[in-house]
Amino acid sequence: MKEILTERLLLHELHDNDHEFIFKLVNSPRWLGFIGDRNIRTLEDAITYVKKIIDNPQVRYWTVRQRTDAQPVGIITLVKRDYLDYYDIGFAFLAEYTGKGYSFEATTSILDALPEQVMMDKLLAITTEDNSRSIRLLEKLGFSYEGILNEGGKTYVKYALSSDRAEIGKLTRSFFSLFDNTSGEPDLRRIFKMCTSSAGIIKQTGRHSEIYSLESFVEPRRKILTDGTLQQFTEFEIDHETKITGNIAQRYSKFRKKGLMHGNVFEGSGHKLFHFVKNGDGWKIAHVVWEDGDHNA
Fold first, then answer.
1. Nearest Cα to 237, choosing from 251, 250, 256, 219?
2. What is the pTM for the complete model shown?
3. DSSP code of 227?
4. Which residue numbers in the chain have pLDDT < 50?
5. Could you tell me the sign of the dihedral formed by the alpha carbons of 193, 195, 196, 200, in that order?
6. Phi, psi of 18 (to 5 degrees)
7. Residue 196's closest CA among 115, 271, 288?
């Protein structure tokens, strides 16, 4: 987890030379208003602050940069606080980089990379009641409201992401990423590790259903993703709703996709319904049903 790449961002663990950016971030209006004054008045203060974070085994910060120009835009934090039973994840971005989906993209990449010993039963997040932007992001990430927390004379709202919900989210995103050929030939063999051996996939077009086994689903897609028919293709979830009951679950996903079909720009959207079961190896995909929406080419 030293360095993580996403479609638009580069995340790396906090370095000593990130102090100028940290100085700017912790003195920004949103940080001061929602997180609090850290009394960082000089660059020397920032150097000391950064070193304290790096040296604390209970704290990890990742600096988030744009891939296009390596410009730092925010941070993702992971902290084991004395007054919380589980790790607390947080995020903070400069105001000029909010509203671009960077916080969601960066936080999701960290969630997908966290080791099991960090997740344990759940992951927490706390924020102030008036920080509506952070609350909306937490809910989009799948966190659920857990209650009010009073600490250090301040009142916070506490949200939690269960390990089951986190694993299902990671599995779903991995399924969508299977078909990405923007960085080379995709490894579609991974689908057999994600799914049960008897998993079925159904494509619905109007009132017509195409029913596939894993093998019959993979082969035609391998062909068009590797023979030049469909290039620079990516497919990604934009909204979801997950319900878990015991060891079974379902996830309704809205998705978008884009690429070049026969050299022409292609964009589309649609809906997928995933069914999951939990066995000795964790959560697996049991069925997928999808229907494409309108597309432009």
1. 256
2. 0.88
3. S
4. 295-297
5. negative
6. -90, 5
7. 288
How many C-beta neighbours within 10 Å does residue 73 have?
21
- Six-digit token pair at 109? 């990449």
Question: What tokens appear for 185 in the block?
Answer: 């030939």
DSSP state, residue 97:
G
pLDDT at 1: 65
Instruction: Identify the pLDDT of residue 219.
Output: 94
**Which residues lie below 8 Å from residue 116, measured CB to CB, with a gap of 6+?**
163
Exposure of 195 in the CB half-sphere (CA atoms within 13 A): 22
d(CA 97, CA 66): 10
> Is the CA virtual torsion 144, 146, 147, 153 positive or negative?
negative
Would you say how long the chain is, in residues? Answer: 297
157 DSSP β-pair partners: 127, 148
Single-letter amino acid, residue 133: R
